[in-house]
């Protein structure tokens, strides 16, 4: 993503912090916060379009579940998290923007065990444009190969959107950017195609849409949305194990995610595999863009608590 011109700790605005809106610059933590030392935090990334947060309740329910996987309970229901997100968006006078709810273990205990630590919850929202450089995004971004792989489900809580799982993503994206790429493509522990550092992967092969089975990485909300859009267009969608060599018989590649939305890929590796954004990619971008203008179709209704 393009670097921000202003640091995130020094901005005007409001952050929803443990039950109330506080001035942006006052939403601070102690240096001995457990989450900072042991990655005991879960979060969501959401986009707002036209003053409405896309698939908000789906994100909130996933956040609650992510915390449960990390063995803690957020002290707010999914419906209350929805309300906090909407209040934060409104307080910051945002119509289109990015929303970041996060929950974490506090500073009451220091050590691997932290069962008496308080669970905190906050929501921030800000104006955030394209995840990738706009001039790159529509012509397709270039992906390097990541050094690290997505872990075996027996070694990490891969179904949770947990902060610790992104450590190898940051390392991989930094290395890719140093080499002149926009992002990195990660394999999984078996050597199969998995995802980019913050977005799911789709391949177009002979008019069909193929995507890796999300059994060791996050099954993205935008990913599921795009699968629904494709099936509505009578495009066959196949979720399966995909090996890297299949890129040779692939015509189009794109990424999906709340931040990335739908981003075409023009190259994987240093000239190893090249693609041109084609009919299916462009159709799904158009369909997704149209969907973002129709909040009634998002399924944001709150689930029963």
Structure description:
This protein has 305 residues and is of the alpha+beta class. The chain folds into two domains: 116 residues, D-amino Acid Aminotransferase, Chain A, domain 1 (2-Layer Sandwich); 158 residues, D-amino Acid Aminotransferase, subunit A, domain 2 (D-amino Acid Aminotransferase, Chain A, domain 2, Alpha-Beta Barrel). 24% of the residues lie in helices and 26% in strands. The strands form two sheets. Strands 8, 9, 10, 11, 12, 13, 14, 15 and 16 form a nine-stranded mixed beta sheet that branches. Strands 1, 2, 3, 4, 5, 6 and 7 form a seven-stranded antiparallel beta sheet that branches.
Which helices and strands, and how do they pair?
Layout: E1 14-17, E2 20-23, H1 34-38, E3 41-43, E4 46-49, E5 52-53, H2 56-69, H3 78-91, E6 97-105, E7 119-126, H4 134-137, E8 141-145, H5 167-178, E9 183-187, E10 193-196, E11 200-205, E12 208-212, H6 221-232, E13 237-240, E14 252-257, E15 261-268, E16 273-274, H7 279-291
Parallel strand pairs: 8-9, 8-15, 12-13
Antiparallel strand pairs: 1-2, 1-7, 3-6, 4-5, 4-6, 6-7, 9-10, 11-12, 11-14, 14-15, 15-16
Helix pairs in contact: 2-3
